[in-house]
Design brief:
Strands 3-2-1-4-5-6-7 form a seven-stranded parallel beta sheet, sandwiched between helices. Helix 5 (113-141) links the parallel strand 4 and strand 5 (144-149). The relative contact order is 0.15. It has nine helices and seven strands; from the N terminus they run αβαβαβαβαβαβαααβ. Helix content is 45%, strand content 15%. It has a single domain (15-198, 228-249), classed as Rossmann fold (3-Layer(aba) Sandwich), CATH 3.40.50.720.
């Protein structure tokens, strides 16, 4: 047995010291939880969103290791300048978390093209556009992590979320393809598929739908909704040296729901 107790190896393997993490949708919900956990692990975190007040409050709660950029990631022609601003102030992005998203709860027959397009623009096109702008610096440095926030809808069929499901399923293909393209350059690409986590988005999705809420809890072996930090620490792991041989995976963090639903 390799006795490394007491030498700090285990702790260092889960640290993010020296990393610059850009987190979209980082002002609230799971994005904020990931920012908080990454900051605790030693990273400099830059959260991105459209509402400055929310971003400012989030940074105040995280502390001195947090900063923010007000930006709309669906304005594709502004993405390059966003990445350059972040690099100019805090250094090249070494961790990108594609977390920003919108939700549309409608049956497929009632989902208009415009609404479907908005979901795809935010989740898929904006995430790809941001990823392609941070990858060159990561490839040059032979170091970097890109993390996509997938979903249970990436793994199983659910009603009234056709656009969201399509977008989150696209993430799975993006993770597999991009990870294969950049692994040789020391860049890892993974995804987390959160289960049902206490958040404003979850409350909105389940609003007025007690049967669906009960169904979810009944089919989640742990019998409860998750905590945002459950996602935050999973993100820290995937972007840390502890996961240095992990790429191209979609990690469910769901209390056992996905294999039992």
């Amino acid at each position: 047995m390799d006795d490394t107790a007491g030498d700090g190896t285990a702790g260092r393997m889960f640290r993010l010291d020296g990393e610059v993490a850009l987190i979209t949708g980082g002002g609230s919900g799971l994005g904020l939880a990931m920012a908080q956990c990454m900051a605790k692990a030693g990273a400099k975190v830059v959260i991105v969103g459209r509402r400055e007040e929310a971003l400012r409050d989030a940074c105040a709660g995280i502390g001195a290791s947090a900063a923010y950029e007000v930006a709309d990631i669906t304005r594709f022609d502004e993405t390059e300048s966003l990445v350059k601003r972040v690099a100019g102030h805090w250094g090249p992005v070494t961790i990108l978390v594609n977390n920003a998203g919108v939700h549309l709860k409608k049956f497929a027959v009632d989902t208009p093209v415009e609404g479907f397009s908005e979901v795809l623009n935010t989740h898929v096109l904006a995430a790809h556009n941001l990823t392609r702008h941070v990858l060159p610096a990561m490839i040059a440095a032979k170091h970097g992590n890109v993390l996509f926030m997938a979903s249970m809808t990436s793994l199983m069929g659910m009603t009234q979320v056709v656009a969201y499901s399509a977008a989150k399923s696209a993430y799975v293909g993006m993770v597999r393809t991009i990870s294969a393209e950049v692994a040789q350059h020391g860049v890892r690409v993974n995804a987390i598929a959160p289960g049902w986590i206490e958040s404003a988005m979850l409350r909105k999705a389940l609003a007025g739908d007690a049967p669906r809420t009960n169904k979810i809890l009944a089919r989640t072996p742990m019998g409860r909704f998750g905590d945002p930090e459950d996602i935050g620490w999973a993100a820290v792991y995937l972007c840390s040296p502890a996961a240095r041989f992990v790429t191209g995976v979609v990690l469910p963090v769901d209390g056992g729901a996905s294999p039992n639903f």
